[in-house]
Amino acid sequence: DFKVEHGLAGMPTCFVASYGSGKPVIAILGEFDALPMISQKGGVSKQDPLLKGAPGHGCGHNTMGTAGTAAAIAVKQALDKYGFQGTIKFFGSPAEETLISRPYMIRAGLFDNVDAVIDNHSSSGFGTSYGRGGNAMFSTIFTFKGKTAHGAGAPWAGRSALDAVEIMNVATNFLREHLFYTYRLHYVIQEGGEAPNVVPDKASVWYFVRNSDERVEEMYDKIINCAKAGALATGTELSIRCLAA
To answer: Residue 224's CB: how many other CB atoms inside 10 A?
Structure first.
């Protein structure tokens, strides 16, 4: 049977299931995740949530962990049947979409003795690849702090944090023309004020910055410059919180 260790790397839902002994040590990732607002009934092709407003699986996350589990069990059966030497490790990796689990799992040393890692991701086609694949990514929240004021009575007394967010977003969208075709850039405004007639003194925007190689760091620096431009233009203060990379 697999030996299962729970609650690893400071995450209650992170686990490793191990079987076998000796080298090679092969890891299979079991990705799972739940994204906000996409609860969905199975077998229904149009939007029909199980619970309105609840989280759900996106881009095949309901199958990836299951497929990884099946693969690990198949390897165990092969080890038993043919008497191969080696160790199979199945890694339960939560929060795949936001890159939360694996940086902490690496930091905790969970992959230190692993010789190779196999991952899977649902797609519209069937294929395999090896070596470096997928995208490196920065997940970062940019928060601007300004000064509130009445939007009709004394707007000149305020400094709009929402204006800073919008200027940043305009700058990054103009930047898209000059990005290499492998770059991916997306954002969502998390906070933008309470009422139209109140100058927002706080606003934030959450960015994903992706690329397939180390040039993602160069791109990330450009996004930070766009954020600084928004703060400079509006007289607001900028704080940057990198959630994962």
So the answer is: 18
> Cα 31–73–63 angle (5° rounding)?
35
Site of tokens 């000796």? 22
Within 8 A by CB and 6+ apart from 174, the residues are none
Q: What is the pTM of this model?
A: 0.78
Residue 121: burial class (beta carbons within 10 Å; 0-12, 13-18, 19+)? middle
Composition of the chain by helix, strand, coil, percent to 5 = 30, 30, 40
Mind listing the domains of the chain with CATH numbers? 3-118 (3.40.630.10), 136-244 (3.30.70.360)
The one-letter amino acid at 49:
P
How far, in Å, CA of 111 to CA of 25, rounded? 10
Tokens of 9: 């790397």
pLDDT, one tens digit per residue, over 10-46 is 999 999 999 999 999 999 999 887 788 888 888 888 8
